[in-house]
Amino acid sequence: MPLHFTPAACILSVFPLPSVFKLSPDQSEKGRDEEPGMPLCSFYASTSVPVVKPQQSVASSKSPSTAAASVATTVPMRSAAAATATVTTAVPTASPSLSLHLPELPSQVKDKILSLELMGVDYGGALELNPALRDAAPESIHAVVSFLQSRGLQFKDLGRVFGMCPSVLTASVRADLRPVFAFLSEDLGVPESAHRRVVIKCPRVLACSVRDQLRPALIYLRRLGFRDSRALALQDPILLVSSVERTLAPKLEFLAGLGMSRDDAVAMVLRCPALFTFSIERNYRPKFEYLVDAMGGGVEDVKAFPQYFAFSLEKRIAPRHRAAEDAGVALPLPDMLKATDEEFREMLDKERELLQEQTATTD
């Protein structure tokens, strides 16, 4: 039966990490607490993790025949029905026809895997999202890490940054990363001490082109009325990595199409910038339809309370509307949705009491 390997899983399924490359939780935490400015090579040398240096290969104390007899290799197998299963196959030496001879991992691949393991990044997942990582030299990855550390990021931050944006691992420090940090300082007025805060909040900023994405988005947002660029970067950096043509402009036009003027739609997003992060089909449309059809509301309600779109339809809007309806109580949208569960129950109880008093007075 032929063996099929996916690019993402190949390196991990065919060449599983030796035990010396595995980190216990305690060892992993110790690695994260190292000084952020320490070069990775020095970090490997100083850590207590029993690792093999990248220039060395893992030597086996067993004879070739004994070692081969004890190898267990996990490989994905594809059946005739195209179903995928994971099979653990023991490879004995007694039967040459069953032997699976695997090449040694190059030292550079070991170095990359070890580096990413220490940072908390899954190599297989990163490789699937960024195939260029396969041919990247460890030295280039170390250069990216050192540069980010020099800009205030800590070693413990790298797992989140590279996990969300593996393309940063193969970015050019000079052509890609330096312009982003210059943009943060010069265009947005973010002090260097706050660069880390922006990157941690939105790692995608490191993967965006200043010329093609970040600056056009900033210009568009400024034209809408976002005047405080520093606050924009610190509080809503995701807007800077959103496409003007595919994301920002279409959502603004959809809001205006609900029956309000464009100026009213702009006023809504200025009050609630998170509106730019919501999906038209999964958020705006079903929630507005429920507001109109089930609640008897309309466009004036969302103009007055744009945060309506930030609440879950299934978990907050519909259940509370039904509860208020069953109680015969009418509550303003902000009061109904912003209150905690306890506060909401208290409001219903008070409104019921008022209704009962009014009914008794009428009778």
Automatic annotation (TrEMBL):
<dbReference type="InterPro" id="IPR003690">
    <property type="entry name" value="MTERF"/>
</dbReference>
<keyword id="KW-0809">Transit peptide</keyword>
<dbReference type="GO" id="GO:0006353">
    <property type="term" value="P:DNA-templated transcription termination"/>
</dbReference>
<dbReference type="Pfam" id="PF02536">
    <property type="entry name" value="mTERF"/>
</dbReference>
<comment type="similarity">
    <text>Belongs to the mTERF family.</text>
</comment>
<keyword id="KW-0805">Transcription regulation</keyword>
<protein>
    <submittedName>
        <fullName>Uncharacterized protein</fullName>
    </submittedName>
</protein>
<dbReference type="InterPro" id="IPR038538">
    <property type="entry name" value="MTERF_sf"/>
</dbReference>
<keyword id="KW-0804">Transcription</keyword>
<keyword id="KW-0806">Transcription termination</keyword>
<dbReference type="GO" id="GO:0003676">
    <property type="term" value="F:nucleic acid binding"/>
</dbReference>
